[in-house]
Design a protein that fits this description.
204 residues, mainly alpha
């Protein structure tokens, strides 16, 4: 029992260290040696627990998706108004990406590499709850609340406006000559500006 508890503590320490390194260096820049040093263990011990950086990240991603994606599902499946769903989705998405800015690149790589496997890992046996969201968009169009729009196009617009700043962050900071503090303020502002931009564009 003592050995099992010690092993669990070591794994938790490794995961905590990996999150710090991934946050600082990103998925591509992170090295197993850096993670081992941060965890206070040798590289051989790290490889005993996780054979590769990718396996380690998959474990972290599984934990993140276990609480992040259910929140998005709840938003999509809620009885809130369409405009409220857009506001809630954007705020939740940006908040999570600010905590884990290395996540979008990993997700994009995995989706392109093995989309079906990734979706199953993320959602389990459930399908993404888009049907209710799409129906709510179509209902608002029929009621004359919003202009005619393909629900898939609307969803793509929302996700694109949320994810692009994190994917393009290094390039944008250089081009705009702004530091991390300023960029973080911009991200915070986008929690209100993105929903307003989307809603103003579709409402009648």
């Amino acid at each position: 029992m003592v050995k099992e508890k010690k092993d669990e503590n070591t794994e938790e320490r490794i995961l905590g260290a990996a999150k710090k390194v991934f946050l600082k260096e990103g998925m591509a820049g992170a090295r197993m040696q850096d993670i081992a040093d941060e965890a206070g263990i040798n590289k051989a011990m790290l490889h005993y627990y996780f054979r590769s950086k990718e396996k380690l990240f998959e474990k972290i991603f599984a934990e993140l998706s276990g609480h992040f994606f259910p929140k998005l599902v709840m938003i999509f499946e809620s009885d809130k108004s369409l405009f409220k769903k857009i506001e809630m989705f954007v705020a939740e998405y940006i908040d999570q990406m600010r905590q884990t800015p290395y996540l979008p690149i990993f997700v994009l790589n995995e989706v392109n590499r093995q989309p079906e496997t990734f979706i199953k890992r993320m959602m389990g046996n459930r399908r993404p709850p888009l049907k209710k969201f799409f129906s709510s968009v179509e209902a608002e169009v029929k009621k004359g609340v919003i202009q005619p729009i393909n629900p898939a196009q609307l969803l793509l617009n929302i996700i694109s406006l949320c994810i692009f700043p994190f994917v393009a962050r290094p390039m944008f900071q250089i081009l705009a000559n702004i530091d991390k503090t300023v960029f973080d303020k911009i991200l915070e502002q986008r929690k209100k500006q993105v929903p307003k931009f989307i809603i103003d564009a579709i409402k009648k």
